[in-house]
RNA sequence: GGACAGGUGGCCGAGUGGCUAAAGGCAGCAGGCUGUAAACCUGCCGCUCCUUGCGAGCUACGGGGGUUCGAAUCCUCCCCUGUCCA
């Protein structure tokens, strides 16, 4: 059903699989990491740089784009791809995360969400239907239904309510989507998206760390039927074991033939481990935000490149990295750029971090295609660690 | 030469008798960031010691001297800086 997703290879020892997501704006090889470009740009990167990085798909945010420049403006311009000059795939997030992150400015009702704009305090109402409409205007390849992402820790009652609400909203979203995207669907009665044509709609599973609720949510969302399935509401502060445990269970409850997307995750280690649990897609602000804030990922662990300890270090950020930043610039120089507050510090660190993530995912895919994923995973679990502070 | 104004911790800058090792900002140092209200935020930021405590001692508000139980704060002399007048 739905958008074409081809599983190309499966790892023998884990539930990792490699596949291809066919979109109207190109194929996306999975497992994939999607750089986050909230406001229609991956901060500090140009689109050319993203292409140099090998990014096949990026994420943008419905809430932010509706605030500025507005979905109407983007639609009139010819859609997000044309507006931001990105001919490759785009996934738009629904604003469900903002239900949590802007909770001080918002109010959830059964009908939808009231936000107060973080820019001027003006009230805005998002319903499952309006969010579908906004995203269809933006014209992304993959769109997400409005959901309610709740903070950790949350009471059973809160989680239950958010699961039920997210489920009802999922149904409404699907209904709106079916009614408005029917033209681009195959006329074979299957309701499936025509390959390489029109947007795909994913469902989102909620339920926090409560496995019963997660199961209920996973089954309900699967029952409604979507082109892909996302696991939301994780990496919001829960312990690591919970993240992995919930992911493992939920991935198992979701359809085998559809892409699985773990929203908002995570560290390099999280990615490899969750690929092993059957996840195909990830997005996370960590590589971009951390880069701007002066910390970078390396094969030896994370390091705070803005630290004075690198003031005289002539070596590259990561000796094992082949990105253009590591091939050309020293730690001392990048640390200097942070020290003097130059914008190029953000540019170079972001490029490196995204390269680190995307290159790691390339290696993950290679390992799934040709073998060696178990070894790669073992290296992550037992090795120097991809996220620990290096000495 | 004269008249004012002023000299505070690395810098800027509050403070005008005790609650002041001295507000605040900057700089510096360390760290955190997981579907981005984030080029952000948090902590530390005179020295020494220890039983690391709303701990002890030392040094400190241009310099010397003085008043006072107690001074960055009051008096006095000196040095220096700025503005204006000769």
Could you explain the architecture of this structure?
The chain is an alpha/beta fold. The protein folds into two domains: 4-185 and 197-284, Alpha-Beta Barrel (TIM Barrel); 291-382, no CATH class. Helix content is 42%, strand content 18%. It contains 15 helices and 16 strands. The strands form four sheets. Strands 4-14-13-12-11-10-6-5 form an eight-stranded parallel sheet. A three-stranded antiparallel sheet has the order 1-2-3. Strands 7-8-9 form a three-stranded antiparallel sheet. Strand 1 (5-10) and strand 2 form a beta hairpin. Helix 10 packs across helix 15. It is globular, with a radius of gyration of 20 Å. The termini are far apart. The structure holds one RNA strand of 86 nucleotides.
In the CATH scheme, the class of the largest domain would be: Alpha Beta
Structural class: alpha/beta
- Poorly predicted regions are 387-391
What does the main sheet amount to? 8 strands, parallel
- Report the CATH topology name of the largest domain: TIM Barrel
- The percent range for helix content is 40-55%
Mean pLDDT across all residues, rounded? 93
Between the first and last Cα atoms, what is the distance in angstroms? 49 Å
**CATH 2nd-level architecture of the largest domain:** Alpha-Beta Barrel
The CATH homologous superfamily of the largest domain is named Queuine tRNA-ribosyltransferase-like
Question: How are strands sequenced across the largest beta sheet?
Answer: 4-14-13-12-11-10-6-5
Number of E-state strands? 16
Bin the strand percentage: 15-25%
């Amino acid at each position: 059903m739905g958008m074409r997703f081809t599983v190309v290879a499966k790892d023998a020892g884990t539930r990792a699989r490699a596949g291809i997501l066919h979109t109207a704006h190109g194929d996306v090889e999975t497992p994939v990491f999607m750089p986050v470009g909230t406001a229609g740009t991956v901060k500090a990167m140009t689109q050319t740089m993203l292409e140099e990085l090998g990014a096949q798909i990026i994420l943008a945010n419905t809430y932010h784009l509706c605030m500025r420049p507005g979905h109407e403006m983007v639609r009139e311009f010819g859609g997000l791809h044309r507006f931001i000059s990105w001919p490759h795939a785009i996934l738009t997030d629904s604003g469900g995360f903002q239900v949590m992150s802007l909770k001080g400015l918002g109010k959830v009702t059964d009908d939808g969400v009231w936000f107060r704009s973080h820019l001027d305090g003006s009230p805005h109402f998002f319903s499952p239907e309006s969010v579908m409409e906004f995203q269809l205007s933006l014209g992304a390849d993959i769109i997400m239904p409005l959901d309610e992402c709740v903070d950790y820790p949350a009471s059973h009652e809160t989680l239950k309510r958010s699961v039920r609400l997210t489920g009802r909203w999922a149904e409404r979203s699907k209904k709106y989507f079916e009614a408005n995207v029917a033209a681009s669907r195959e006329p074979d009665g299957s309701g499936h998206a025509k390959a390489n044509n029109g947007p795909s709609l994913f469902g989102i599973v909620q339920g926090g760390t409560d496995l019963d609720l997660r199961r209920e949510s996973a089954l309900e969302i699967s029952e409604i039927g979507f082109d892909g399935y996302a696991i939301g509401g994780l990496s919001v502060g829960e312990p690591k074991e919970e993240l992995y445990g919930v992911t493992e269970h939920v991935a198992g409850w979701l359809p085998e033939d559809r892409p699985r997307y773990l929203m908002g995750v995570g560290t390099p280690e999280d990615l490899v481990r969750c690929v092993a649990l059957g996840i195909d897609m990830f997005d996370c602000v960590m590589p971009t935000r951390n880069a701007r804030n002066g910390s970078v990922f390396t094969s030896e662990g994370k390091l705070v490149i803005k630290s004075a300890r690198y003031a005289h270090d002539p070596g590259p950020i990561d000796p094992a990295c082949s990105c253009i930043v590591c091939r050309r610039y020293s730690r001392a120089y990048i640390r200097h750029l942070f020290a003097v507050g130059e914008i190029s510090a953000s540019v170079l660190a972001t490029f490196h971090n995204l390269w680190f993530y995307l290159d790691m995912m390339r290696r993950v895919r290679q390992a799934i295609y040709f073998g060696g994923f178990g070894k790669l995973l073992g290296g992550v679990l037992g090795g120097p660690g991809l996220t620990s502070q290096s000495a």
